[in-house]
Amino acid sequence: MRLLIVATLVTIILAIISLFIGVSDVSLGALLSSSAEDRPMQVLLISRIPRTLAIILAGASMAIAGLVMQMIVRNRFVEPSTAGTTESASLGFLVVTIFAPGWPLMAKMLVAALFALGGTALFLRILRAVPLRDVLLVPLVGIMLGGIIGAVTTFFAYRFELMASMLAWTMGDFSGVLRGRYELLWIGLFCAVLAYIAADRFTVAGMGRDFTTNLGLNYQRVMVLGLVIVSLVSAVVLVSVGSIPFLGLIVPNLVSLMVGDNMRRTVPWVAVMGAGFVLACDILGRVIRAPYEIPISVVVGVIGSAIFLVLLLRTRRHAA
Amino acid sequence: MKHITRTPAIVAALLAGAFSLTAMTASAQDKVIIHAQGETTISGVPAKVLTSDWAAFDNLHALGVPVAGVPASNAPGYLKDFVAADAIQIGSLFEPDFEGIAASEADLYIVGARSRDAYGTAKDILPTVDMSIDNSAIIAGVQGNITKYGEIFGLEDKAAELNATLDAKIAEVKAAAEGKGTALVLVTNAGNVGVYGPDSRVAWIHNELAIPSVMENVDDGDHGGDTVSFEFILERNPDWLFVVDRDAGVGSEGAAASLLDNELVNQTSAAKQGHIVYLDPQAAYITMHGYSGIMLLLDQVLAGLKA
Asked: Which first-to-last residue range defines the signal peptide (chain B) (predicted)?
């Protein structure tokens, strides 16, 4: 518990740093000496606070989506981007962009979420047909499924000359976040809270269908709830900022190493560390090449894969 | 008398013979074309021409040269109607269909920019030239290419005419831009904004039209430019914004316009004065090395500056 408070404090400090990093001059002094009409205050309200909130919401909810997914699939190497969920959401967003470009963002997001739901359900259906539930086979199946869905998406994007747009969507990037352009991410927070409330059920479901049914829980319903949470979060994050690779993989795994697998205990950890990790990466992305930015998906990709490798090698050494 | 009447006839016959002889040597004469990847020899005026580059198509169309084979995709909107109905399609911009090219028995094949890597394979199949040009000197490159096409197809006068029109247009836009302040070229893409600098494919706005950039030493990539935040645009505060909307495939300029219509960009002097010019995205991004593409862009810049 004390450790969790420390982690939360670190995340809050990162959030404060995030508020003061950017092209415009927004220092504490400038803020205190300026009125609400001046530029520092304007930039803070229009750009910095929304961006920091978007990072926290996206980071926390993506990490939790990864955790929920790992529980319901019972595999540590699964997360939305290794199960075809993100790719399905992209396909949905592409379809709605081609056929109904004028729809409001909320409607587009819902279509993306429905596709994500369908893609994830298909993944689970395929898993049931895979005879060997090898630990590495499951994410491989997911990555292959994602590859197929991604290929379909690429085909249509190519046909409709939307390749560059597709690339930019799937590339996570907070540079476009402003007041009025990130609010969908609050849905992610709602899903995270839902995951916390249902945490015990997911923990039980993580033990398997028979075990769950024996405890008097409706296994199917828990699975559907998990799928809806994962799909909604993936769609919301994809539509608002793009996909953030590895996040749902690294954070839950790190947390699991530290505090175990009881989801009621791990959800707050995963949320705080997800937010903190993305905050740190986005700050880096803004600082390295200032005044230009390096997209979050690139920074997370580089740092995330390094952390993941360390995790893999360490667990192997412990096992040996 | 016979003598006298016959002499002019003989002279005439000789002359005619000499003429036909020179005409024959001219048609059979080999021309050496120096281009971006070496030298290519062609004999006579090529009748059947293929290209994997829309800019090359653009230039040939401007000269009035029919093109028998074009890329299968990405025809810019402003060129679509000029592609012959019976033109054969020779693969994508990046990967030409070499079998189709070999089967076509064409006289000349032109590659450029995206298709330049095809040169190595294509040159062994049929006479091939690479008309790629450097983005840092687009106008000179386009004019150089037009001159070269003029020589290849014996249309030197038409080429000179096109180049003169282009020069005049540049001078006109340059005059209109003088003293109008600084500019920033943006590319918008699915909610993100990238900036373009002096070595990019839209650098001609700064280099050729002498509109100063608000940035110094931009280290930009050739593609989407460097990602920036809206704060960046606000702080650099350009007098003009030239926007390339990469989302335009979906339709209209709505995507970029609504993206840039926000509380930060609206505070820049460009936005306040209505100085946001949307450039034809295909001309600015895909075929900026073609005559009518560059003329289209120059007209758009001019219309924006005068508005």
From this structure: 1-28
